[in-house]
Design brief:
Number of domains: 1
Strand content: under 5%
Radius of gyration: 20 Å
CATH topology: Growth Hormone, Chain: A
Shape: globular
Number of strands: 0
CATH superfamily: MFS general substrate transporter like domains
Distance between the termini: 29 Å
Structural class: mainly alpha
Largest sheet: none
Length: about 400
């Protein structure tokens, strides 16, 4: 029996920090910072609210395409080559956004930025997980997502702190400048990881990809689709909704995104503990129920109460949905590794792309943003329903 490589606490901390910073760069400083930026960009006249929804859709389309690329290039040797490349693309496209005001060019830049996000969001955690598995520390892999929660807080501070000093395209400068050193340091650390390229499993048999879709996993994929469509509406339009419902100068105009960030930070630890204590599937169903209540609050209680409840409940659950679904999926299909993660992210990316597109159609047809949140309510109810059709992995 081969012993696992030793690992020091300092090594473990460095790797998890590098992964967290890389995810912070692509998923918050690149992606979700657009949410608090959107009301300012609309007010600056860079584009309308409907056009802003279209720009978000282009970014989510890129995210979907990036995740699909990660399905194709899922091996460790692929990750070593592509991770630095797509991190560089991500930083360069964020810098480009500081220089352009044309809607077509903005949409193209956000699309390519999303492609890079999709690849990195799959590959960085997958590489870290493989490294941790070899050292019997796989249970710690979820901590890499803490970077997303902290990044939401950082993005909120960057936007609100520079709101009075910048205008239009200039508002992207804080995120662009911070992304450069974080991406560079993170990728340098991740490229040092000693992870062999595996062509055979532990029994010496050649590694063969098995089907990802079967009677056990299809309900899980459908449930995850509902989660992606349900959470993306508040994560894209909550500050814009606050601007339409609250008077000028109200603390929640910027405060809703801050609440989301604060509740997101402990979410990976919380749902990891709940999944271990009550089981991943029951925890996933509870997660859907809480998230559904959060989005429903904006429809039932328009105004400050609904906004606060939505920010707190969605912020505290959406990363838990990701972690728990990934864990259940891996249990249903052992040894799929990065390929399974990429397939899940691709599906999530598709439904996230649909959400802003549906919102744009609804707004252009004369609907309100509050009523558009009903789409998210229906999607999360759909996801909760199919979560009850997912069998227990041990069954």
């Amino acid at each position: 029996m081969t012993s696992s490589p030793t690992i020091s606490p300092r090594q473990l901390f460095t790797v998890l920090l590098a992964g967290s910073l890389v995810l912070m760069v692509v998923h918050t400083l690149g992606r979700f910072i657009y949410t608090p930026l959107l009301p300012y960009l609309v007010a600056d006249g860079q584009f309308s609210a409907a056009d802003g929804a279209a720009v978000a859709t282009w970014n989510y389309l890129g995210y979907l395409m990036g995740a699909m690329l990660a399905i194709r290039w899922h091996r460790i040797d692929h990750i070593r080559q592509l991770l630095p490349l797509f991190l560089a693309i991500h930083v360069l496209t964020t810098l480009l956004l500081t220089q352009i005001d044309n809607l077509t060019l903005i949409s193209a830049a956000r699309w390519l930025n999303g492609v890079a996000n999709g690849v990195v969001f799959v590959q960085a955690p997958a590489l870290i997980l493989e490294w941790l598995v070899l050292r019997n520390r796989a249970s710690l892999s979820g901590l890499v997502y803490l970077g997303v929660g902290v990044g939401l807080l950082v993005s909120s501070g960057l936007v609100s702190g520079s709101a009075g000093m910048l205008d239009g395209a200039e508002r992207w400068w804080p995120a662009a400048l911070l992304s450069i050193p974080l991406a560079w340091w993170g990728v340098v650390q991740l490229r040092k990881l000693d992870v062999p390229v595996r062509q055979h499993d532990e029994a010496g048999q050649a590694v063969v990809n098995t089907p990802l879709l079967d009677r056990a996993s299809i309900p899980l994929f459908l449930s995850y689709a509902g989660a992606g469509l349900g959470y993306i509406l508040p994560m894209t339009f909550l500050p814009l909704l606050a601007q339409g419902e609250l008077p000028a100068g109200h603390v929640l105009l910027d405060g809703t995104w801050m609440i989301v960030a604060l509740f997101t930070i402990p979410a990976p630890w919380l749902w990891n503990k709940l999944g271990a204590r009550m089981g991943d599937l029951p925890a996933l169903r509870l997660n859907f129920l809480i998230q559904l209540a959060g989005v429903l609050a904006t429809v039932v209680w328009p105004g400050a109460v609904g906004l606060v409840l939505c920010a707190a409940l969605v912020g505290s659950t959406f990363l838990g949905t990701v972690l728990l679904t990934q864990r259940v999926g891996r249990a249903l299909h052992p040894h799929q590794g990065p390929r399974l993660s990429a397939a899940m992210v691709a599906l999530y990316g598709f439904t996230q792309m649909v959400g802003p597109w549906l919102t744009k159609q609804w707004l252009e047809a004369g609907g309100t943003l509050v009523s558009a949140f009903g789409i998210g309510v229906a999607a999360l109810a759909f996801g909760l329903l199919f979560a009850f059709f997912v069998p227990r992995p041990d069954a």
